[in-house]
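We emphasize that the prediction below concerns an isolated chain of 457 residues; any contacts that depend on oligomerization or on bound cofactors are therefore not represented. The input was used exactly as deposited, without trimming of termini.
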Amino acid sequence: MSCFCSVRLLTLHPMPCWASDVSISTRGELRTGSRMALLARMTKARLFRLSVVVGSLFMILLIIVYWDNVGTAHFYLHTTLSRPRGALPTVTKEGGQGFLSDVDDFVEKLLSSQHGLDLARKTEPPPPLRASSRPLSRNLEENVRGYDWSTRDTGAVLDQETLQAERRRTLREFCASSNFTFPTKERSFDDIPNYELNHLIVDDRHGIIYCYVPKVACTNWKRVMIVLSESLMDQGVPYVDPMAIPREHVHNTSTHFTFNKFWRRYGKFSRHLMKIKLKKYTKFLFVRDPFVRLISAFRSKFELENEEFYRRFAVPMLKLYSNYSSIPTSVSEAFEVGLRVSFSDFIQYLLDPRTEKLAPFNEHWRQVYRLCHPCQIEYDFVGKLESLDEDAAHLLQLLKVDHLLRFPPSYRNRTASSWEEDWFAKIPVAWRRQLYKLYEADFVLFGYPKPEHLLKN
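Result of the prediction step, given as a C-alpha cell string:
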C-alpha cells in the first residue's frame, strides 16, 4: 500500500520536459537581465562620482584663482613688456593632465577678459606722483653708505629696447648651448625644490614677478614691490613712498608673497599655478659683476658690526683660516681689539669644499643662477646695477607704474668695479682662477667679460 501510494504521488503532477527547459531558460534570462541592470547602475554611479570629482576640482581651482586675485581687490594683469622672440615657458601637458590643461585655457581666457578691470571698487584716477623723501638713517649700513641724490643726465640714456633684446638673447643662447655647462643647468622647472624658489616675489595686482639678488639694490626693489602689491600697511594705510618703509620690514620674509609660499596656500595646485603666472606675468631681475658683488657682500657683512654674520660666519673663518683659538663671543668685542675677518679669509671660505657640504652658500654670495634659475625661467627684463638708474626708470615705464612711484636713489659710495685690483691684490692668482670657475656661469649668462687682468700671472 505504501509503495502504491508513493508511485501514485509521483505520477500526480508529472513535469513535461519542455516545461523544465523553459524554466531553466527563464532563470538564465533573469540572471542576465539582473547583471545588465546592475552594470548599468554601477556605470551611472561611477560617471556621477567622476563628474562630482571633476566638478569639485574645477571649483576648487576657480576659488583659488578668485581668492588669489580678487581677494587683493585687483583682478587684472599688466603684461606690457614686449615678449622676447621664441617660446615662453609653457605649462607642461603630461599624461593624465587633460583636466588641468582645460583649466589653463579657461583661466587664461578669464584673466584676459578681466584685464584692466577692478572688480572690487570703481576705477579711480591715479594718485599724484610723490617724490621719495629722504630716509631716516635707522640702519647702520644705510647710515654709513648714504644715498646719492644727485640729478641724472637723462640725455645719456642708452637704447633700452636694443639693450634688453641683447641681454635676453645672451641668456637664451648660453642656456641652450651644449658647449657651456654648469650645475643645475639641465634640470626643468619642476625639478627645482620649493625652498629654492624663495627669491621670486609675486605682485598679483600688477602681474609682476621679481627675483631679488642680494647686493644688487634688492632692498629698494623690495620696497617698490611692497608699494605696488600693497603688502604692508602703515597705520592701516598701504605705503605709497618706498623710502618710508623701514629696512627691518623690507627684509622680513612675511612681508612678501614668494613662490615657495605657494604650497601652503594652493597645495598640489601650487606648481601648476606658478607656471601659469610665469607665463602671464612680467618677470625681471637685476644683476651685477660677480666679483664686485662679492666685495660688496664682504664690506657690508664683515666690515660693519653685524652680530648674526659674525657668529655664523666670521668666527668659523677666523678659526679655520687665521688660526685663532681664543675668539671674542660678540662682534663689538672683536672690533674693539681689532679682530676682523680679512678678504683673504672670505675667499678661502668660498673655495673650501667643506663650505657647501655644511650648507648652501648664504644668499649674499650665492650665485645668481642658483637664486633666480635663468635657464628655467625666461625673464622679460634683465637689469644691471652698473646702469641701475636708467634700467630702473625704463622698467617702471614699461610696467606702467612710473606714475605711482620713482625708484629710490642709489648709494653714493657704491662698490665700484675699479676697486677689484686693489681688493684682489693679496689674493693668489690660483685662488682667483678657482673663484672665477665658481662664478663663471654668472659672468657668462649675464654678459660680464672675463676678468683677464685678475686671472693672469
